[in-house]
Amino acid sequence: MEAKAEIAEVVNNWTFFRDQEAWSSLLGTFHEDGTISLSWYQGPFKGFVAASENASKGKNAIVKHYVGIPMIQVNGDRALSETNVTIMLRAKTPAGEVDTTSYARFFDLVERRNGSWKILKRTAIYERDRLDPVQGPLPDVFYKGLEQYPEELRFLASSLHKLGIEISPATVVDKSPALAELYRGGSDWLLGS
């Protein structure tokens, strides 16, 4: 239970530090060789932190994450954590200000090194999303081209596109072959394979 509590704290800290733009503290939630795969970024965690910090300077978007209580499996110094997350993005676009709400899960490979639990790999799994205008109705331009994006994150992908950010080709959506492969790989890793 102590390991699960420590892992849950790391998962929660990631969210708090990310949303509060506490970049140096955020770096401490992942191992040095950690990686992350989200809708808009796939690669080393250090690169994600740098890209997030850079994006925050423009203030064209405000991001907020709400995470649930993680489901955690521990095997020695390795653990799997899966957490429900709601990602809220308020973006100023040329056609108006919008709120995008994305429902997803974070699937984490977590490892204890030198007595400290940190995330080694995080993959976001997208379930569904919605788009709401901040004021007034949305112009038709917001609905144009939605069919080019996966249904599970079409509004998020479209909002990111309007900010000049394309979704990663490695994006994982719920109930997909990529998700089945992610789970298989995570289970193998947990068992030391």
From TrEMBL:
The segment(s) forming the SnoaL-like domain are 2-123
InterPro entries, A to Z: NTF2-like_dom_sf (IPR032710), SnoaL-like (IPR037401)
**Protein's name according to its UniProt entry:** Nuclear transport factor 2 family protein
